[in-house]
Amino acid sequence: MNKFLFLVACLSGFIPAANAHHSFSAQFDREKPVSLEGVITKVEWQNPHVYFHIEVENPDGSYDEWALEMGAPAVLTRLQGWTRSTLQVGDEVQVEGTLARDGSNLANARNVTVTSGDVLDAGSSERLTP
Q1: Per the confidence metrics, is the pTM higher than 0.85?
Q2: Domains of the chain (ranges plus CATH)?
Q3: Separation of alpha carbons 104 and 67, rounded Å
Q4: Contact between 46 and 70 (Cβ < 8 Å)
Q5: Residue-wise burial string across 75-113, b where 16 or more C-beta atoms lie within 10 A, e elsewhere
Q6: Which of 14, 113, 116, 125 has the greatest number of C-beta atoms within 10 Å?
Q7: What 3-state class would DSSP assign to 20?
Q8: pLDDT tens per residue, the chain (130 residues)?
């Protein structure tokens, strides 16, 4: 009986992470593509998605901070060739993606053009959903 309770306790730790994950179309609107250019202020390698943040200059000279969601760390490293050092704070990047439905400064990144000019696939979950 103790082994059973231990197993249940271990498995219950995975439930919140599974429930926290979202479908692409629940959070992002395919009909709202976006192109952003800015300087990276933060990079977060964590499951279920990698996020990076950029400061984007507005036409009036003010700045907005945007959060960009990419694929899972395993997808980016194993299938797309990313490393934890591919994006660094201070790098200038261009991003093509899809806006969040809620109108916030959040987008799902499809491609990221890095300083070298290379266009990298961001492992977007948009391609995985109909």
Answers
A1: no
A2: 22-128 (2.40.50.140)
A3: 9
A4: no
A5: bbbeeeebeeebbeeebebbbbbbbbeeeeebbbbbebb
A6: 125
A7: helix
A8: 455 444 444 444 443 333 345 577 778 999 999 999 999 999 999 999 999 999 999 999 999 999 999 999 999 999 889 999 999 999 999 999 999 999 999 999 999 999 999 999 999 877 655 5
